[in-house]
Structures are given as structure tokens and as C-alpha cells.
């Protein structure tokens, strides 16, 4: 049999989805056909999560009920909080998140329910509890007391409250809400595909999400925005930006936050975050961060735009997260905090018409061989 190998599964279609559409050539991203720019401007993370799970925009009554369900499920078992407090200091935050979510499954009597209703119920709880888990990990690693969730705050506002120990301003809560919206789902990325692959075996939701976290941990998927902040600190000043980028390009070195597997034009999410990065950089007296990014973008577009290489969503998100008081090491867990909605929705959508994922590989090894006794080798 002859076959064409699609390295990295590029261009391979394995399922249908009504959730997210991406046109990388034109820089288009939509959820349920609605542009990401409109979601960011007009919606909330709670509403987008409902839309992804149900495949439709909610009525005001449906949204209020869903929001109340999220708020009611923010608490996590005390046993899990004690375990998080015992994790080794300096543990990788994504290792801690992966372990905590797996542990949460052990404590859930419904964990093995793989019915459509069971997956949905567990998924909603996980969307609510991810923020509590991540905030608890961050505070425990810093030697601080864990802050219990508050039911009177929005999903974004409650996370910032649990993380920092004081209530965020409405401006901060809304800014973080927008960041969550922009990262909630992005088609068949590596972590979403991993979650689906696990779910296709009829494994449980906790196993699927734990698998996704493991995929997100890899620097080729999550973590690029942390590397962008490292790059900004390395460059230091606007005056150094062009020579830094020129050196990188001349030596064929990767520039973090630039280029995307799908987008061959501007990532539409980066266009939204660009505006907010400019605002927060000026507000916090670090406008040089934005000026460096702006200089890099100009250089990249001039030199690489013709090859379809542009800044992606990670390019500006680090500046926004830093302004919100989030440490670089927690940028990837924050990615997971947003993407949990997309993971859960995609698992539910795929398993509604499930088929075990079982790809093949072209064998290139030896043939017609026979076992050689060890004394004769």
C-alpha cells in the first residue's frame, strides 16, 4: 500500500465540528460563526463557555442558570487543597496542575460516568474548579494561605481575587475576562486533539483533560508568551530591538510569539490583545515593553510577512498578564484555565458520535529477519 505521510498530521481531517472555524490565510477565527473580535468586545467567558458546550448562544435565563452553576461549583475538596500544599516547592506549575486534576478525579464519585450527561456535569464542574486549583497552586508554592473562592464575583474576577488575595478592579477583571475569551478554544490544536484521542477510547473526562494538560505543557504549544517576556527583558531597550531581531533572523533562530502553524496572516487574537497591551504598558509605566513589541512587529512584517509569518496571540498576551500581577511561570496554566472550556466542549461533541482514533504509520524498518541467539550477537 502506498500512502502520503502528513508530518504532524498537517492537513489531515479526522472529524467534523460546529464549534470553531479558522481561516489562517485571511486571519479569521470564529466560534459558532461569530468573529472572535465580537466575542471579546461583547461577551464574557461564561457566555462563550455555554455557547461552546451547547452549540448556541444562551438566552438571559439560560446564561444566568449556567453562571450560577459555575459559581456553585468553585469549591474543591479540602483533601485536594492539602495535597496541593504538600507539592514540592519549585514544582513546575503545569506538573502541579496535571497532578491536581488527576487527584480531583479520584475524589469524584461520578468520575467514571462517561454518559453524555455525566461528561457534561463533570465538565462544568471542571471549568468552575480549574481557577480554584491554579490559584491554590500559585499561592501554596509562594508559601501563602489559599484563598477560598467567592460566589459574588465573575469567573475572571474570582480567579484574580483568589490569586492575589484582594478583589480586582472592574477594569482588571474585564481585561482578564477578555484574555480568557481569546484562549477558550482554537480548533484541533495539540491539546484538544489529545483530549479527544483519550476520550475516543471511552476513558473518563478527568483522564481526557489530564492528557490535554500534558500536551499543553510542551513549549511548542503552551508557554510561548512566557518566552516573549524573557525576550523583552533580554532586549532591554527599544534601541536594541532591531539589531536583536536582525541577529536572530540572520542566524535562522526562532523569535518567540512569531509565526503560527495555522495562521499565514495576523492572528486575529493578537490584534485584540495588541490594543490592550498598549494600554496596560502605558498604565504601569512600562511603555518600553510595548514599544519593543511594536518595533519587532514592524521588522517581522517587513521581512517575513511575504512568507506568511506574523505575530501570534502569545506576542502580546504576556504584557497583559504581567500587568495583572501574574507571574511568568503561570502563563501556561492560565492558558489551561481558558482552554478547559474548549477541551470539554470538544470531548462532548466528539463522543456524541464517537469512533476510536487509531491512525497508522508507514513501516520503514527491516524485514525478513530472524531471531539471533544472544551468544551469537
UniProtKB/TrEMBL annotation:
GO CC terms of this entry = cytosol
- Set out the biological process GO terms recorded for this chain's protein: carbohydrate metabolic process; tricarboxylic acid cycle
Signal peptide boundaries: none
Keyword terms, alphabetized: Transferase, Tricarboxylic acid cycle
Q: Which reaction does it catalyse?
A: oxaloacetate + acetyl-CoA + H2O = citrate + CoA + H(+)
- A matching Pfam family: Citrate_synt
Top-rank taxon, per record: Bacteria
Family annotation (PROSITE patterns): CITRATE_SYNTHASE
SUPFAM superfamilies reported for this sequence: Citrate synthase
What are the positions of the active site?
260, 314
Q: Which InterPro entries match?
A: 2-MeCitrate/Citrate_synth_II, Citrate_synth-like_lrg_a-sub, Citrate_synth-like_sm_a-sub, Citrate_synthase, Citrate_synthase_AS, Citrate_synthase_bac-typ, Citrate_synthase_sf
Write out the GO MF terms. citrate synthase activity
* Keyword Membrane on entry: no
Q: In which pathway does it act?
A: Carbohydrate metabolism; tricarboxylic acid cycle
Recorded family membership: Belongs to the citrate synthase family.
Report the protein name in the record.
Citrate synthase
Name the species this protein comes from.
Deinococcus yavapaiensis KR-236
